[in-house]
Amino acid sequence: MTALQRVADAVGRxxxxxxxxxxxxxxxxxxxxxxxxxxxxxxxxxxxxxARYDARATFFLIGERSMRHPDLLADIxxxxxxxxxxxxxxxxxxxxxxDEFHRQLHAxxxxxxxxxxVRTFRPGSGWFTPAMLRVAGSLGYRCALGSPGLVAxxxxxxxxxxERLARxxxxxxxxxxxxxxxxxxxxxxxxxxxxxxxxxxxxxxxALRQV
Length: 211
What we know:
It is built from 8 helices and 8 strands. The chain has helices at about 5-15, 45-50, 65-70, 70-80, 100-115, 130-140, 160-170, 185-200, and strands spanning about 20, 30-35, 60, 80-85, 120, 140-145, 175-180, 205. The strands form 2 sheets. Strands 2, 3, 4, 7 and 8 form a 5-stranded parallel beta sheet that branches. Strands 1-6-5 form a 3-stranded parallel beta sheet.
């Protein structure tokens, strides 16, 4: 367990919801997580790359985009990937008041639960408040963040970025990538190179629930 995860555990115990920044595991696995989908410009190609490597991921999905693209949501679930709750809109969750956070978390939960079990959320922009943790804990959720140095949302050098992410990864690391817009289409190349680079290091990418 990393020092940061020990701090996260202490905060989580205080406010009633588990916080994940690094997974405790004896297996050579890392958690691959992808935020802000689904989107026709990226999701189908990401699923194809993941299938080619027989890899799994956790997709943290935005409610509005999921409602617009239920076919992609169904494809993600059918391929065996984990569904995560990224609330209703692409916005900083910490700016929502308690009631609005509860409303969004619950609404997206109902939407995603049609396709599979959903027990993990990621706050928009990665920031949370004690009130958010209390609400999430009351609904049986844990809060998944990312491991330091393993979060990327812009891809000016997809191949180089992927190699750096692989070098920084350790068993139990949580990698955070972003799709959701046409400008993020290079995320497909990032995942392709990343999965190959992880395999060369003896690491397997999988969903959070499988680490």
